[in-house]
Specification:
The protein has about 450 residues and is of the alpha+beta class. The chain folds into three domains: about 45 residues, Transferase, Pyrimidine Nucleoside Phosphorylase, Chain A, domain 3 (Up-down Bundle); about 260 residues, Nucleoside phosphorylase/phosphoribosyltransferase catalytic domain (Pyrimidine Nucleoside Phosphorylase, Chain A, domain 2); about 90 residues, Alpha-Beta Complex (Aldehyde Oxidoreductase, domain 3). The strands form four sheets. The protein has a five-stranded mixed sheet, sandwiched between helices. A four-stranded antiparallel sheet has the order 6-9-11-7, sandwiched between helices. Strand 13 and strand 14 form a beta hairpin. Helix 17 packs antiparallel against helix 18. The radius of gyration is 22 Å and the shape is globular.
């Protein structure tokens, strides 16, 4: 078998065989195929696509290229959750304790982030003492005892994905649905999930900018999961505007705690209850969506989700006094700048992309892997779409220790669209995609 022939086949729009996919993945990981040939193949895939079967096989070979996590020592079905990322997306910090409190074990591996803010691990590490590194035995033991553990991605999981992604990044082939889908799903499957709930964000603050793109990616990922024996559901949710009020790391932890205590923003709560309900459904702890939503809501109302969060954080070394005295410990008031409304009217829209960009400039995110994060930096929205504001009224806060944040403050100001009339806000949940059906909601 020759790599040249594999490139020709995909260039000519032919379907790659299981043997061909196995050949190029395994040999590339072991340094036997040069970058320039893989680059040519990636461009051919970008231009001609892949069938669902090809994409599933590519995902499987990426999983097999490295280590996998065996979660069989944890009783019950293990349901993982993944978000494609957005502005103010702290859902994992809320969803994981909710479903764990309902009895579903959550053994989650999460990443650190590039872009607007940090990833889930960065947010958790904004709490002094939190340890994201556990051995596999410690990880499994904690899930069995506390029903919840969240650790950083470590070890030799999916090395093929790491190599391919680095090459895609410099060959203009990142925006390929089969390559995006296989990248995401390979990590979830290697991490030991029995079932997967995907939160696919769509809008200006998301990777997928249009609904059609989000549906296409969702269908591809659901097909991969089902082809590889994992029950998979994708929930498409809005990311044209920030989720919740907080965008940052410690700021988002504070808002997550408020939500778990029953005092969170309605938009954030709605998304988290929906994600939780589908995790409970796939974990076979509920018979239908309505029953699952009641269970998830009850876990917040009776305090069990918040208690589960505290136990999990304490088990991984977090300073509980910081969590108990949240506002004093997680919000740095001395580094706060106020943004006010330039004129009176109804807030019609808040641009997620501009708020996200501002947050990164303030220091909450990374431009490169080497960039340092300021855990206390970020943006806190004080008013949301649909509300009426007077000229000069405070609409947002910016937190940063940097001296020059003028650009960030300008972006936050520009993000607010204020008009004479209130307008209907778009639905948060756009569609739910399962193996059998698409449940579309009016946009």
């Amino acid at each position: 078998m020759r790599m040249y022939d594999i490139i020709v086949n995909k260039r000519d729009g032919l379907r790659l065989t299981e043997e061909e996919i196995h050949y190029f993945i395994q040999n590339y990981v072991h340094g036997k195929i040069p970058d320039y040939q893989i680059s040519a193949l990636l461009m051919a895939i970008y231009l001609n696509g892949m069938t669902s079967e090809e994409t599933a096989q590519l995902t499987l070979e990426m999983v097999k290229s490295g280590d996998t996590i065996d979660l069989s020592r944890i009783s019950g079905l293990k349901v993982d959750k993944h978000s494609t990322g957005g502005v103010g997306d702290k859902a994992t910090l809320i969803v994981a304790p909710i479903v764990a409190a309902c009895g579903l074990p959550v053994a989650k591996m999460s990443g650190r982030g590039l872009g607007h803010t940090g990833g889930t691990i960065d947010k958790l590490e904004s709490v002094t003492g939190f340890r994201a590194e556990l051995t596999v035995d410690q990880f499994i033991e904690q899930v069995n005892e506390k029903r919840l553990a969240i650790v950083g991605q470590s070890g030799n999981l999916t090395p093929a994905d790491k190599k391919l992604y680095a090459l895609r990044d410099v060959t203009a082939t990142v925006d390929s649905i089969p390559l995006i889908a296989s990248s995401i799903m390979s990590k979830k499957i290697a991490a030991g999930a029995d079932a997967i709930v995907l939160d696919v964000k769509v809008g200006s603050g998301a990777f997928m900018k249009t609904f059609d793109e989000a549906v296409k990616l969702s269908k591809e990922m659901v097909a991969i999961g089902e082809n590889l024996g994992r029950s998979t559901v994708a929930i498409i949710s809005d990311m044209d505007q920030p989720l919740g009020y907080a965008v940052g790391n410690s700021l988002e932890v504070y808002e997550a705690i408020q939500t778990l205590k029953g005092n969170g923003p309605q938009d954030l709560l709605e998304v988290c209850i929906k994600l939780s309900s589908y995790m409970l459904l796939l974990g076979q702890l509920a018979n239908n969506e309505g029953e699952a939503e009641v269970m998830a809501t009850q876990a917040i109302d009776d305090g069990s989700a918040y208690a589960c969060f505290l136990e999990f954080m304490q088990a991984q070394g977090a300073d509980l006094q910081i969590l108990i005295n949240q506002e004093e410990s997680l919000i740095s008031k001395e580094n706060c700048k106020i943004i006010t409304a330039k004129h009176s009217g109804f807030i019609q829209h808040i641009s997620a992309s501009q708020i996200g960009h501002a947050s990164m400039i303030l220091g909450a995110g990374r431009e490169t892997k080497e960039s340092a994060i300021d855990y206390f930096a970020g943006v806190r929205l004080l008013r949301k779409p649909g509300e009426f504001v007077q000229v000069g009224e405070q609409i947002a806060e910016a937190y940063s220790t940097k001296a020059d944040i003028g650009q960030a403050l300008s972006l936050i100001q520009q993000a607010y669209i204020i008009g004479d009339h209130s307008i209907d806000q778009p639905a948060l949940i756009k569609a739910i995609i399962t193996k059998r059906e698409i449940e579309s909601r009016k946009i």
